[in-house]
What does this fold into?
Amino acid sequence: MGERLPLVIYFLSMVNWAQVLFNSSVTGCIYLISAVGLTLTYGLSKFPNFAHAEFMTLGAYAGYFLADQLGLGFPSAFVAAFIASGILGALSYRGIFQPLAKRGASLIHLMVAAIGLGFVIRHFVGELWGWSPRSFKVTWSAFDIGIVRVSDLWLWLIFAALAMAGLMHLLLTKTKIGKAIRGTSSNPELALASGVNINRVTLVTWLVGAALAGIAGLFRGAGTRLSPMLGWDILLPTFAVTILGGIGSFYGAIAAAFIIGLAENIGVVFLTSFGISTEYRMAIAFLILIITLILRPGGLARMFR
Amino acid sequence: MLIAENIDAGYGDVVIVHNVSIKVGKGETIAIVGPNGSGKSTLIKSLLGFACLFRGRVFYQGKEITGITPDRAVALGISYVPQLNNVFVNLTVAENLEMGAYIRKDGTVKADIAEIYRLFPELEARRGTWAGNLSGGERQMLAIARGMMTNPKVILLDEPLASLSPKSTSLILSKIEKIRDSGTAIVIIEQNVKKALDSSQRSYVLVDGTCVLEGDSHSILSDETARRRYLGLKA
It folds into this structure.
């Protein structure tokens, strides 16, 4: 260790930190889009929906189907991902989780049902599109902005994340249903006493949240590869964002997504400089998840509401 | 206005309230008092579908509403302000009031919010504050104000004076009086027996889930036996 230290310092001094920062925001943007739905449905339905991973996976494949297999071009993939995953989310709530909750299912029942549902969707995708990875035909051009190497896909991703954050902010603060989503999440009994139709509010949240997960999955698939495990692979960091941000808190999730994106990318730099495999990057999100649960189980939500 | 007859109520399989009947008329304030665990809250909650109603019938404006759900009750004009968790802590004061008006489709919501701010100027000053950051008294005011935003004909207040400072207590009581003067029927559940009886016309005393005494609040307050046996007040 001791003799390695000068090497490490040399390595770190050579790192393009602007690039690390940019990569962090790219990672953060994907996590944000995937976590919004998870945190809002978690806040309303009070259980962690593990099938959220497969909402992402299905979105990616639905986009692939329209864009590449039907040849309608990449923009059509967004529509396909949004609609397919949105419908899947709404059906999952209406067909599985709402009836279960009505019959008095506990947290454990709902969680196991979600894991089961995720399993079914994953294998369904595997049967339809095969288990070997696929790639989008479209190629992304990479270019330099100053000292930072970017690709147009990543710029689109950042644009999409900003647009989504802006629209969600307007939805949650300016519309009646948005205020009801926030209110019901923090105090369902009072929402009921205010005449809120909780089932409808929850259904809309599942629909929107799953649709956004589909978009996150699409970006992930376009940036890397498509595989039935696509969503499952980023479910852990998505959960880390949800917990760190505070369950049910959209604004907490924004901050948390970028904190975890940053931690992961800086972590990778350090892992590399110490000669440790970057396979451990997932452990970073997991570590943050555990530290949050120990030190601040409510997450950042109190700072952001 | 609101009549409940021979109510048995509780949670799950547990019966907490036994054969209690209450009624409140238009523009009237009634108090339901009794020690902790006497079933006051359960009684009220069961009328609106927040707790199980095992037996008995509920009438509102002459129509039977037994077994109604909470959201339907609000739509009919019955408002309920819980004792705990009675504001949306992650919404601002103004948003809490808007949530109160959630079911209303009439165009007078804005005017009503202005009216609420006239009644509770303390809240107007803090309209943009998260409800979670309010003081105890402000929070209670907001809870009642949210309940009023449903435009109720009868409002049920569950321990509105609990854990308030003496100053906030008299402030809240004066607000409740003003609400009564506006013609809304009020049901107050309270452990603060003296204050509750002072500010109501009729009262019901609950002990162990049964009604042991009912009648004119002033006569109950001046009845020495009642004071000693049920109200824990000095004779």
Remarks:
- Residues 143 and 149 of chain A are 6 Å apart (CA to CA).
- Chain A touches chain B through 20 residues (CB under 8 Å).
